[in-house]
Write a structure and sequence with these properties.
The protein has nine helices and 17 strands. It is globular and about 65 Å long. It is α/β, with parallel strands linked by helices. β2 and β3 form a beta hairpin. The strands form three sheets. Strands 1-16-17-15-14-11-12-13 form an eight-stranded mixed beta sheet, with helices on both faces. A seven-stranded mixed beta sheet has the order 4-3-2-5-6-7-8, with helices on one face.
Length: about 325
Amino acid sequence: LPDPEVFASAPENFRMRAEFRVWHEGEDCFYAMFDPEIPKKPVRVDAFPMGSKRINSLMSEVLSEVMKAGPVLKHKLFQINFLTTLSGDALVTMLYHKKLNDDWKEAMAPVCEKLDIAVVGRANKMKVVLGRDYVTEKLQVQGRELSYKQVEGTFCQPNAGMCVNMLEWALNVTKPNTLPPDTDLLELYCGNGNFTIALSPNFNRCLATEISKVSVAAARENAVVNSTDNVTIVRMSSEDFTESLLNGVERVRLKDIDLPSHDFRTILVDPPRAGLDQASREFAQSFERIVYISCCPETLCRDLHSMAETHIIERFAVFDQFPYTDHIEGGVYLIKR
């Protein structure tokens, strides 16, 4: 392996999102987390140094407003989630074991205005949106400001500062002078277009797939907002897309895309913790260059063991996405032997 490139996280205020249980004791209620070894005993959480500064200020402010409002906001509230951004945007999701009626909306609306937040109320088969159900993140990446719509309940990188490091690393390993001219990028598991949009200047065209309907809509909107006219997002599983590309299987969602005209030399994969299935791994190995972003060292090691038969590991990076834990994010750049 090449010497690893190590990217350290900020020690505090690095998490842009957090989820807390709300624990009720008599008239009081507080944020709580749980020790896996003592799962029934709540650990009171009054501050969260790992969370963004906005999360820490909102924790006390939101709970204070809940207590002031009384039962209409407090009764059967069991969880509060925070989603914030480096640019100061904030969304709070409040989860209840009761239906949310007009009284709840009327009590919550002035809180939204006072704290300058958007709020989503959730209950069984209910979703009530006050303002909007997303935040807008703005990242400074190699001199460009990239704007990303991040929708409540969908995946986004929790450590925004580390996300910038990951995007800049991926830009660096795929810069044009390291690639054949005028080639295209294929990305599997693109989410809201986080990597796709950032890497688009390095390629002639970028085609990305994602299975989540909400994430696909956000990715397409993000491509427009960032003026990336060489990006196409397709709602399709990686397995179905692979079958279409390799075997010419026709699919309705690809009817307006001329796959044979693309010159895919580079593939970017950012799979879930389970890593790549065998078919996707073998498919990735058919490309000249692979950018593999991993959130699980164990499955990354498994996949690289197979990929090393056909590719050389040119660059290897470690991103401390989750300080104080044993979780680590990896980035690997491979070139065909």
